[in-house]
Amino acid sequence: MMKILVNEALPAFIESDLKTRGFEIIQVKVAQEQLANYINTHNIEVLVIQQARKITRSLIDSSTTLKYILIADTRIDLEYIDYAIKNGIQVLWAEKALANATAEMVFAHLLTGSRLLQEANRNMPLEGEVNFKSLQKAYSNGVELAGKTLGIIGMNIAGELVTQKAIGLGMRVIYYDDVKTLLSKKVALMNGVSFQLNLESQSLESVIEEAHFLTVHTSQFERYILRKDRFELAKNLLGVINCAYPEAVNEVDLVDLLNDEQLLFAGLDRFEEEPNPAIQVLMQPAISLSPNVNSASGDIEEQIWNEIRELFAECR
Asked: Across the strands, what pairs with 24?
């Protein structure tokens, strides 16, 4: 019988379902510093957590019996997930449930930045009453998304949904993924609308060179996938979005581009120095900001637990 440690409260319908499947459930709150010792002492094979930050290198290195980690959280950190996988622990999380919220957040930042709303929203309360006309002139130089090229770096589930939404807005989509080299699927939308999606991966260099906007959706952690030498490849780049993970983008290089007005805007939901983002990032007026809420919404909790219940079928 596989032992499951639930370090947070478990919904009743999940608990009942797991007991029916024959899992032994231990629900106890264990202090972070004692977690690895508890796992080893009680031969825990599955750890269910609702706070992804509890996955640490120390926990992974010290846990000798652990086979699976299930994350019932909206906030995911690929760096530690990759570390766990490389150390023989499978990590399962509600990727499908979180993907649409992430994709919509990408477009929240894209639409905000392309029409300079991040700056307008900062300055209208301060100056709108007395300088309306000058603000109108200052923020009339935004761009439209339709007809522009969106480059997607990595093609996870959120990336697929970003692709669908971009095409719906009239954008051209190109992508790079060294594993998923072909994206071919039938997409069903509301109102009975459907279409066939067929895209082939390009080289990372060509995606960066051609794109007007870049967004990161890799399934594996890579530090600074966007950095100075790669930005220098760009010929058309207007905006960069990071709703993926900390350190996907070199923020020093990004801020330099914005300061030099080589980019129109950036949209950041993840930050190198999370949870204390660099002040030069927070104060750069061309950056649209959100505090790691890309996959969090009021609609999401039940969807997460339903997907977690399905994922338990993989634990054997």
From this structure: 3
